[in-house]
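hi!! sorry for the late reply, been swamped w classes. u asked for the two structures so here they r. pasted raw, havent cleaned anything up. first the sequence of the first protein and right below it the tokens
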Amino acid sequence: MIISNVRLRGREGLYDVEVKDKKVVSIRPHESGSGDVNGMGMLFTSSFVVPHVHIDKVETGPIVEDKTVSIYQLGSAPAAAIDAAAEVKKHYNEESIYSKVKLRLLEAVKYGVTDIRAFVDVDSYAGLTGLRGVKRARDELADLINVQLVAFPQQGILRDKGAEDIIKDALKNGADVVGGIPWIEKEENQLEHIRIALTIAKEEKKPAAFLVDDAPDPKLRTVEMLAEETVRLGLVGQVEACHARALELYEKERLRKALDLIKQAGISLITNPHTGRYHLPVREAISAGVNVALGQDDCNDAYYPYGRCNMLEVGFLASHLLFMMGKDERETIMDMITVRAGEAIGVKGLGVYEGAPASLVLLKHDNVRDSLRYHDGVLLSMNRGRLVYGEI
């Protein structure tokens, strides 16, 4: 298939891009009348990636949001918000979760997302109910979108007895990634939480994904512990860490040392500035050589009343909240929802170049600025060479 008459990031002029056998096989200057699809001069770029979203909780916000949204968003009592949000899991039903997740994944396809790392609660509250519902939707839509399932112990491991065994059961029943949330534990148990989760990941040969330091408290240091343990266990490059909001409050030298540790561990940081008042220092982290990406985090749940896995929308919000609106900064924002997000979850090599995987989108505008400004979806989306969505 040849997508003709398109603009590419970082290049002047118009191009024809040929895709074959799941790869980009050629890029050449546009020739009039060539191609299978006329891109009409719009921007052709790598597909979008969601490296962090709590997919099992979509559309559950009305159940408990009065008790949770404000105290989580403002950072006044995030741990209390998590405990209150556990109420949602009393309403878990496999069929309902399957239906809601399927709709959200189909909407993500419409917005040009090809890859998602989906966190699913597996604990004494939810058991494997959420996992079974999400897995059904994931498997049914496997030809359209690639979904990695994180076995996520939302209520902790040490503080939620039995969670460790449930994580292991989840891995036997379709989960792809070992999850963790060490900052929710008592201080004396945080390191043990990390060690348990990483040991499971190493034994099962799985990547790991953690929520760390999700509160405005500079005493929190689970991201540093995670980096140290990642190196010690030989898991460099196999771990992502989401939130790390406490880093914003670290004094300068401590932040430098923490970011150096994170870089050594090959940990990707995922920030979600739209879901909380505090967020990790993105500029400093990128300058330190750390891979940083943007996540969706939530879609109408106990912590955030909006969200639809539209990563251009996430980028638009982040551009404001991080004050990254200059030309080069907009390009960085775009990288944080495409190539950097892919790198964070092991989807490597995204981009538009000869030999790249053909996970590509044709946007509705001819430049990054307007694509973020209007965040109005895509005209066409390809997943590993398969046309999965198209308006033209």
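now the second protein. again sequence first, tokens right under
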Amino acid sequence: MALDSMVVDENSPLRIHKIWQGNSAFVVMQSSTNHAEVPHLPKKFFLVIDCHQASFGIRIETTKPPSLQVGSTGLAALMRKYLARVKIIAASCHPSSGDIVLILRGQIPQPGKNSTTFTHSGYLWLARRRPPELNLTLASGEQIFRFGQKGFFNKVKQGQDVEARFRDLSDTPLHPYPLCIHTPETSTPNEPNTAVPPVSQAEPEQAALRHKITRRIKTVTKALQQQQGLLNRQGNTDTVYQQAKLLQAFLYKVQPGDIELRLDEIESGIPGGICIPLDPEKSPTHTLENLFKQAKKGKKTAQLGSRRQVIMQDQLTQLEALRQQLDTPLTSAVALQQLQAQASQLGVKFAVPPSSAPGKSAAASSLFRTIRCQDGTEFLIGRSPSENDLLTKKANSADFWFHVTQGGGSHIILPQSQLRKHKLTAPSAAMIRQGCILALHFSSLKNECSGEVYVTQKRNLRKTKGLAPGLWLVDRSKVIFTKYDSSERDHILQA
């Protein structure tokens, strides 16, 4: 890891482009600067504000850090709101307390739901407490939020100016805080090398497959790192269980209103003794139950995480082996198809090619029965209880689901892709009727040629623990009575 540093000042401020919240207590801001004296600094880099006790500080990374939360979180959304039009003009540090402050200049909205007034200065203050805490404070002293290992708090409350707080701590002026630049060099032996060697342009399909496998390797590697982080955070399960056993043994020593139970080395068997925190508002028995539940949940999570980690590591090994086979030209198209099939089983996604046979799509026919109607609409049909479960689980939340209201029958899925193909936002009346006829035909009401059918989206279904294969709970749905004759049914089936 190559290291360098940069000092932020008014002549080379940092501009903020994007903001993410990490899976643990850190914030990442994509930034840029016109600083010309720092070599090897890309046009856009990542400013990491770390609120962990062991790795406290603010640094610059040239690559996007892993373990970022997907989507917009409350903290990220609030920071985007207040920091959209500001620059970081200085990074300072208090020499005795170690607190770090980023000085902001620009248009910062005043707190309020529909505020149209702005202030021109504020501070991102990273306090070196136990645990460390990041807060955004305006020059007026109003605090916008607090964030750290204890969580995110956005309740606005009055506070002191950050610079005033530092002056209260000591008369020593703030010192410039150089931002260390972390630049990754070559990949380590433990990290897969995802560099793509050149492949002959005469083999575009092989090159495309290798590119897809490389992207899948990156995805699995990132998921493996995230899983390892989760397992590391679950490492205190044994400590929690030990506290629960000691509290159970010495429960008689707890008095009403106690906030902790202290046990010496002889009682606990732990060098230096142990202190078990208690909640004075709850009974000791309730605290004991919570400790046992927490330990049990942590143990189960660790076991599941370890199994997932083994599966992902095995998948990564197989993907690496597939990519290695693609480093040399393949001898036939059959060999390429075999590798594509293996890659598909390992999670590599392929675009669904247009169907050459009427009535079935190339991708879906291998898993589920597919019926194509005269207008080109395709429905997926489960042929057994276990296949019904698999079909519904694989369906997207916006896909439409058909099933008879009484008795058993197949699950019928109308994929959202079929609506896009017909440039529709909702199924037409003809599509709904076709789905209802198929649901009735592939059910115990087949000979009735009439009945009521559930028509809803996958998001309105749920599968709870203990339900038999093929059984799902319907939270919300339309019920449509459909009556048809054999000629209409045959017209759909023979299309």
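hope this helps!! also noticed smth abt the second:
The radius of gyration is 30 Å.
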